[in-house]
Amino acid sequence: MNAFSDLGLSPEIVSALVEQGYETPTPIQAAAIPKALAGHDLLAAAQTGTGKTAAFMLPSLERLKRYATTSTSPAMHPVRMLVLTPTRELADQIDQNVQGYLKNLSLRHTVLFGGMNMEPQKQALRAGCEIVVATVGRLLDHVQQKNIQLNKVEIVVLDEADRMLDMGFIDDIRRIMQMLPKERQTLLFSATFAPPIRRLAQDFMRAPEEISVAAQNTTSANVEQHIIAIDTGRKRALLERLILDLNMSQVIVFCKTKQSVDQVNRDLNRRGISAQAIHGDKSQQSRLETLSQFKDGSLRVLVATDVAARGLDIAELPFVINYEMPTAPEDYVHRIGRTGRAGAEGVAISLMDADEQKMFEAIKELIKKDLQVERIEGFEPRWWPQDSAPQPEREVRAPRENRGNTEGGSRRQERTAAVKRDAAKDKARAPASDAGAACHRIPGRSRRTRLQCALLQPNYGVRGE
Q1: Is-contact 460 439, C-beta < 8 A?
Q2: Considering 287, 304, 370, 432, which has the largest number of Cβ atoms within 10 A of its Cβ?
Q3: Domains by residue range for the chain, with CATH
Q4: What's the CA gap between 38 and 15, in Å, rounded?
Q5: Dihedrals φ, ψ of 208, to 5°?
Q6: Rounded Cα gap, residues 287 and 336, in angstroms
Q7: 373-375 and 462-463 as β-strands: parallel, antiparallel, unpaired?
C-alpha cells in the first residue's frame, strides 16, 4: 500500500503522485487529507514549504472525481471548486500542481490572474471547468463581466489567508463568499491564527477542525540562517562576493522596493552575473518567463520584491539572500522559506545595516530564535563596536579632481603604498590559524580563489560579540 493510499486517496490520484515523485505525505498532508476527505471545514496552519497545496488539493480532487466526464458540453463542467490566492505567482504555482494531480481524471481546471489578456481566461471559463484558481481582483473582474457562475461551488479554499488580509482584500473576500452556496466546504490555510483570521473563520466556516503541525511563525530547521552586519554602501560589493565565493548557481535576492530590485539587477548584470528582476511593475508575461528561466536553471539570480516571497516553489533552491531586511517580520519567514523546502537543506543570508537593527530584533522575537550577528572580514561595518585590537589603516581616496601629479596626491599614494607593504609583511608573518590568512573551504561549496577568502568556517564570517 502506498502511504497516500492509506490516507484514503484513490489509485488514479496516487499513481499521478508517484509519477511526480511523491513518496511520503508531509505532516500537514497527513493531518489535513483525512479530515478534508470527511467533509470537515479546516483551519490549518503550517510553515511555508511544507506541502500545503497538496494538503487541500488532493482530498478536494478525491471528492470531485465523481463529476469527472469526457463530455465536451460546458454545462457538464460547472465550477465546483474555487481556490483564492493573494498573488499571481502563487495562483500560477497551484495551477501547475493541479495539472499534475489531474493526470488521470477527466476534470478541467483554469487559472485567473491579472496582468494577462482576459479573453483566453474568458474562453476557458465559457468552455467549462470544475476547478478555478484565482487572485481576488481578477475573479471579481470576471464576475462583473458575467464570465463565471459560482452557484455550484462545493469547495472553497483561502490559501495564504493572512497575506490576503494584509493586502487589504478582506472586503473583496467577504463579497465573494456571499456569492457562494451556503452548503459548501471551506478550507482556510494561513501562516498564523491571528485574531483577524479567527474572525474570518467564525464568519464563513462551520465548526472548523484546527490543524497546526508546527509552531506558528517558525523557520525550518533545514535552513541555515546568517545575519551579516554591513554598511549600506557596501552591500552591493558583498552581494557579488557572496554569489561568487559560494559559487551560488541559483539564488533569490530579496529587496524591499521595486527601485532597489532594478538597481541591484542592473549592478549584477554589469558585473557579468546572470540576473533578472521580478516585481509588481513587470508584466505578467515577463514575470512568468523570468520564473521559467530561473526554475530551469538558465538564470542564476532572481532579484525580487516580496511578490516572490510566497508561492514560489523551486525544487531544492540552495540560497536566499535578504539584500534588505523586510518591512514586516512575517515576511522574513516567507522569504527564507523559499529554500529548505520539503526536507531539502538551504542557506539564508541577510545583510543588515545600522537602520535595520530594529527589524532584526522584531524578527528574533517573532521566530523565537536568538540569531547571532556576524561580520565578514574586509566588510566590517563602521557602525559596529570596534574590537580592542588595532585596525589596519585603510586607504582614503582623494576626490577625482584632486588626483594626479599634485603634491598631496603623491603623498597619499606613498602612504597607500606603505600601508600595502606593511599589510603584506603582516600577512607573511601570520600563523596559519590567523583569521585573515586561513581561507577555510565550506564543505560542499567551492570558492573563487581570485577573491581573498572572507567566508570563514562554519559561519561565513567573524561572529559578532
Answers
A1: no
A2: 304
A3: 5-212 (3.40.50.300), 223-385+432-463 (3.40.50.300)
A4: 22
A5: -65, 145
A6: 20
A7: antiparallel
d(CA 29, CA 126): 33
Closest CA to 143 of 367, 230, 135, 271: 135
Residue 235's identity, in one-letter code, is K
Single-letter amino acid, residue 317 = L
Q: Alpha-carbon distance 139 to 132, whole Å?
A: 9
Distance CA 126, CA 442 (A): 56
β-strands 301-304, 275-278 pairing: parallel
CA distance 129 to 78: 6
Residue 29, all three cell numbers: 498532508
Residue 382, C-alpha cell as written in the block: 563602521
Handedness of CA 303, 307, 310, 312 (dihedral sign): negative
Burial 201-239 (b: 16+ CB within 10 A, else e): beebbeebbebebeebbebbeebbbbbbbbbeebbbebb
Nearest to 379 by CA among 315, 435, 456, 454: 454
pLDDT along the chain (465 residues), means of 10: 84 91 87 95 79 92 95 95 91 90 94 91 96 96 96 95 86 94 94 83 91 68 88 94 91 93 95 90 81 88 82 77 90 83 80 94 88 88 67 38 43 53 48 34 35 38 40
Grid coordinates given for 237: 560589493
Give the largest Cα separation in the chain, rounded: 89
Q: From residue 154, how far is each of 127, 267, 348 by CA, in Å?
A: 19, 50, 40
Whole-angstrom Cα Rg for the chain:
26
User: Distance (Å, rounded) from C-alpha 322 to C-alpha 252?
Assistant: 8
